[in-house]
Amino acid sequence: MLDRHFHLLDNKAMTDETIRNEMLLGAAARGFVGTIKALKTGVSGSASSDLERQLTEMGFTEGARVEILHEGAIARDPIAVRIDNVTIALRRREAMAVIVQ
Amino acid sequence: MTDFSLAHDGQLRVALVGTPNSGKTSLFNALTGSRQKVANYAGVTVERKTGAFVTPTGRQIALIDLPGTYSLRGRSPDEEITRDVVLGRYRGEIAPDLVLCVADTTNLRLTLRLVLELKRTGRPLVVVLNMFDIAQRRGMRVDLGAMSAALEVPVVTSVAVRKAGLADLLKLTDDFASRLPTLAKTAPSDNWSPWTLSEMKAAQRDADRLIRDTVRMPTKPDTLTTRVDAVLLHPLAGLLILAVILFVIFQAVFSWAQPVMDLLSNTFVVLGQFVHNTLPDELLQNFIQNGIIAGVGSVIVFLPQIMIVFLFILLLEDFGYMARAAFLMDRIMGGAGLHGRAFIPLLSSFACAIPGIMATRVIDNRRDRLTTILIAPLMTCSARIPVYTLIISAFIPAKNIGGWVNLQGLVMFGLYIAGISSALAVSFIVKFFMWRDYQPAPFMLELPDYKLPRIKSVTIGIYTRVKMFLYRAGTTILSMMVLIWFLASFPQPPAGATGPAINYSLAAMIGHALEPLLAPLGFNWQIAVALIPGMAAREVAVGALGTVYAIEGGKEAAVHIGQVLADKWSLATALSLLAWFVFAPQCASTLAVIRRETGSSGWMVATFLYMFALAYIASLLVYNIASVAGLS
Prior knowledge:
The structure holds two protein chains of two kinds. By secondary structure, chain A is of the alpha+beta class. Helices cover 34% and strands 34% of the residues of chain A. Chain A has a six-stranded antiparallel beta sheet. Chain A is globular, with a radius of gyration of 13 Å. Chain A starts with a helix and ends with a strand. Helix content of chain B is 59%, strand content 8%. By secondary structure, chain B is α/β, with parallel strands linked by helices. Chain B is elongated, with a radius of gyration of 28 Å. The N and C termini of chain B lie far apart (68 Å). In chain B, strand 10 and strand 11 form a beta hairpin. Chain B has a seven-stranded mixed beta sheet, with helices on both faces. A two-stranded antiparallel ribbon of chain B has the order 7-9. A two-stranded antiparallel ribbon of chain B has the order 10-11. Chain B has 26 helices and twelve strands. Chains A and B meet through helix 2, strand 3, strand 4 and strand 5 of A and helix 8, helix 9, helix 13 and strand 12 of B. Strand 5 of chain A pairs antiparallel with strand 12 of chain B, so a sheet runs across the interface.
């Protein structure tokens, strides 16, 4: 029940994305500057809800300004993201849970 | 147990809590100086750092440096300790009387949320704005009064790198200590529960609002770090620079350490000779010279290498480069199923697997950490070098291939490559078979601003680790050496016996008993005997072979052993023994460290068995292929 609920939210976020010029941080290129709109929830069970918590702990909260400063050598992964005045390194895979504008 | 400790020893107990990179450890070092102790928490592998200092009015304060954390969620073993000690839930630890939450003033956002979380535990709390000088230089202004009023918690500033920078903090601790007996004792936080996600988000909003209200942000951000990173994190230049740094560390470990190691090793020989000449009783003299001095000495000889490895690790860590190395290597190592943070521990393992395995503490995910611990002993440690050198120089001709590549060097290089590639293969297999159902652990890591390393901090770091190493040499390794000496010396040869004494010992009996098992690998009983003392430390096998073949020790022995081996062994046997040493779990101290670091004998046994199996199979293959090729 709960899972389906999350799924619906997720789908809604996906459609909104295309309408309002939103994108996923994990898909952005180096030099991207934007604002965090939301974190995706419940993509696949409990592991990702912990991912949302961990992202929140590292300062990925709604409204925060983000900038991609650096990229890794292979497949431009991982990325180094500046949030306010902290730099956080993370993989694109995890950055896919961050919706930015 | 959770009561205030004043009744116990009259000392105020203060705990340091903070996010990673908050300068918590340098504050700890500044407060306690060398009056600190590094140990482990009971049953787990997290470093427990405690120390003491005296306030200006002469009060004794006990200080504990808790592992850095972003929240009280308790994700890794380190973070659980911090949470449980603060809550007074940790068995064997008394709850702190006062919690100092240390913040990097230039980076308040995440720490202030942690402060709000800590407030809810009900512990007396003080916020310490550390590195305040850097923040001021960058043009940051903090309204301390307003911040303290809004948080309802005292706020003091500190500059850990200057003695005067601690004055406010010391005074505040003093005041608190003087008021402590009259303070109402807060009940231990039994009804504490972790924050929900929405509570955490709300707290972050509160913290952000607090910063907007009380802090004027710097007009000029730290562009230096960004500019340095443009080079050090450059996809191409960054990797090249990392390779150069690694090369320098290798050079340092192998060449800088050599003179000191020779000096140490000669000192132990002289010391042993002194004992030999001074003590009359032959058995006691033999025990002290060969059992204790030679045995423990053979391990202490590696102290310079371990110090150099830690010097580099501490320097790079303090500089802020370690997180960058993990960033650069994450994707490359990910191919073999390893986490980016495993890079440094594996690097350290080229000197010795023991500091390498200890360094895996930086990996917060348990599965990633276990994989790294499991493969660390496959990295070619420096103790293998004497064995490799002996066999290669005895059996591999020193001829050049293609005019400039030395065959001996090529074989040595090949042995290193064999170690590295088998480590990657094992990691890949472990990930694939044991943990493929789990999602890979997220890689999320703060890249701190660069800072110049402080000599004092680095010195204290090396000093505490040297102390730990020597302590281990004096306990575990010493007892191991006594046992091995006993095995090789008893029972004593009967009167009138010819041949070396070791032939009549328990060690020889074990050697003969093992011979059928090792014969398929081309090992004779003498090799089997040499492998037993080699269990304590690999390089001891070289000396043991000398003893077994009844050659007098001394400088010329190395040459003689080589000749004797070349006469008595086939090339197939020599190659087989090389293959054996690439994989064999031939180091009791490493196994002991694995047990301590994983907190279970199971992982120690697993490491022993898989390495033993690999060694056996590799030697069997090498010996048989070489035999078929007519080399036996």
